[in-house]
Amino acid sequence: MQYVDTGNVQKRLNSRLLKNNLFKGIFFLATIFGLVVLAVLLIRVGTQGISWMDWNFLTGRLSTDADRAGIMGAILGTSWLMLVVIPVTLFLGVGTAIYLELYAKKGKLQTIIATNISNLAGVPSIVYGLLGLTVFVRAMSVGNVVLAGGLTLSLLVLPIVIVSAQEAIRAVPQHLSEASYGMGATKWQTVKNIILPAAIPGILTGSILALSRAIGETAPLTVLGIPALLIPFPEGFFDPFTALPMQIYYWTLDSSLVDEYAYLAAATIVVLLMLLFLLNAVAIHIRNKFGQRY
Amino acid sequence: MAASRENNRINVRELINKNKNGKNMSRLTENIIPTILFMIASISILTTVGIIYTLLSEAIEFFRRVPIWDFFTGTVLRPLSQDPAFGILPLINGTIISSLIAILVAGPIGMMTAVYLSEYASEKRRRTWKPMLEILAGIPTIVYGFFAFTFVTPVIRTIFPAVEATNILSPGLIMGVMIIPMIASLSEDAMTSVPNSMREGALALGATKLEMTFKVVVPAALSGIISSFVLGISRAIGETMIVTIASGSSKHFTFDITQSMQTMTAYIVEVAGGDAPAGETIYYSLYAVALTLFVFTLMMNLLARYIARKFREEY
Q1: Which chain B residue shows the shortest CA-CA distance from A184?
Q2: What is the distance between the alpha carbons of residues A102 and A91, in angstroms, rounded to a whole number?
């Protein structure tokens, strides 16, 4: 005697399993979708850009004539920006992280600072642009120069650096600092000689990622009024400058007037993306090489 | 012998004294360092204060000239005309529509990606595909703007010729693509943190993987999933370059997604980039719009945190 109608069960099970497999396929396609768009974007921009990329383009000055235009000014401008952003964010970010992780007493103040940092991370970048415009460009009358742009971008990426530095410091095992205290070291000596060196790979990884974010940011620079005109190459922190994303922005907007500008924008994008991928590769390399060895 | 012992003793005393002096020095640094670090840490507070102060002080001046009621209910925005009108509704409308298109793309696709990565994909595939997807989030928005303007819009226009050269549809779609990794990654984290015992319980009762996913895992991870959606919307609201480039600058109050619309962020770029003379109403309108944008995104971010905390299921 058979209590279970095997045929019926099998039939029902089959339809449920079929549904499962069908949806598995749909989920797979959804996952692929993002990667496909990424591939289309890279191939499209790459093929457009490579054809315009030559030595003259990389080293030349700006020109309204598409055939002669070069992006040396933008490359130099971005480099000068980095000379401001790197030291300022490292100093402020690591300092804040040390304070929050190792010095601040658990309490209201620490909670306020921590909540504030996570809120800052969600503020749209263009609002930072307005802050920079009002405080650095106008109130301090620095003008729209390298320093103002760099400080604005530093504030923008500061939350990323703080959070990643905090994580890196937290990941340093307790027994290392306990050993240091046991040897009679003071707190700052322990921080300086033991905790920071052990946390440096993590801090570097996060900082490089923050830096690559800063390099690609455009919105704050447009608000600061950074030009993409025929200006002399920047030679100091108080010189006007242009940057790679600004160059892309202007050429994209003007591509409806001059068709060739689209190719110039694409070629500049190739340069920018190669720079970003390089930075990311360095960050991944550091993480793999120095990560977790205790 | 006795003399040298005497000498030794003196030397030791000197050493102790020296050491004491050194300790004084280090005690000084020990006291100064926390103060310096506190000052550095307070920069982040100062940044917030700075943002709120600049936005508020200039926006208040704006509201002295344009009544706050007219600003928030006005459907006409003509900042540059002889007879200017400052209604923010066209901008809010453009912002909401573009964010809506973005979340309609990124929400389902991001969640399905999260389900695939956390429930169906092998460990090896998950570890290679997740970073690949995260490249999407690392691409500068200006590049997406270029892509939307020079590739996506022309493609859409060959299929639907009625679409304008600048429209809200293509930047909305591309913003969606940009947000996919954020939603996928946060939702996947939420799903992965659902304990395996719950999955095994469902499977042992005879559920298929699909049934297990949607009847057990997704409900258990719902707070994380919803908060990832809210964060995604917030990101879309604050996004600037894609909409500035690809959605144009017309300030119509319309719901037609084939038309050009302006978002709050794009308006800020237009007005700030146009070198608005300080003192004019249009200059102050910049800050009123930015304040609205800031409040919008702040509320979304707080909401996302609240949902993630409040409705987190504990196992």
Answers
A1: B23
A2: 16
